[in-house]
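Journal club side-thread
Mid-discussion, someone asked how the predicted structure for our own chain would compare to the paper's figures. Pasting it here so we can look after the session.
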Amino acid sequence: MTSVMPSAGDSAGSPAGSLAGSRAGTPAAGSAGPAAAAVPQPPARQALLRAARAALSDRPWPRVRMVEVAAAAGFSRQTLYSEFGSKEGLGTALVARELEAFLDRTARAAQRAARTAADPADAPVAGCAAAAVSVVRTAHRDPLVRAALTGCWESRLPPPGPEPDRAGARLRDRTAAALVSAGAAAGHGAAGPAALRHACEVGLRLALSYVVAPCDGPPEATEEAAGAHVTQVLRALLG
């Protein structure tokens, strides 16, 4: 079965409780905001992860061969094993890379929407709605991100890694940090950051319900419905 998924660098912008050459290391997963600097990766590691992603887009993970990934990246199989240790290690690093890229995209979408809201008082709602649309869009297009968010891992995907239930919480916290950095907490007094975190929790859980049960019609209909629903609920919540 063929899996078609966008790469981590694609600009396309998905329930929350579910919300190594010789130099090993994966990107920091818990950075607080969208502008947090990613941990630099050696060129070999980057190329090998890109090759693994391309291979996964063409065939299920059990059929992805380490020797083919190494050759596609232009490195030896020994370099691949030195970087990741095993195929499982490669899969775990790939999941972490794709999830980090998704979290960063979603947080940036929320931050951008909050900063450009016509009414500053509506910035938290606008930011959460934009995050919801990014979630639904990416989850529809990318089975790996969808699995990370819902906890439903198909056999054609890499293993989820050591903390498969943290994606929802990280999404909430990254989005809330983005809104705080955009000044969206200014109108909510001392409780602003906490109120934004709660709003993100509610909004993202609503968005993920649309991932699990999309609307009839094209994917854009589900994205639009999710954004509208989050807007309606959070306006009532934040008053």
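Post-session note: The chain is about 60% helix and 0% strand.
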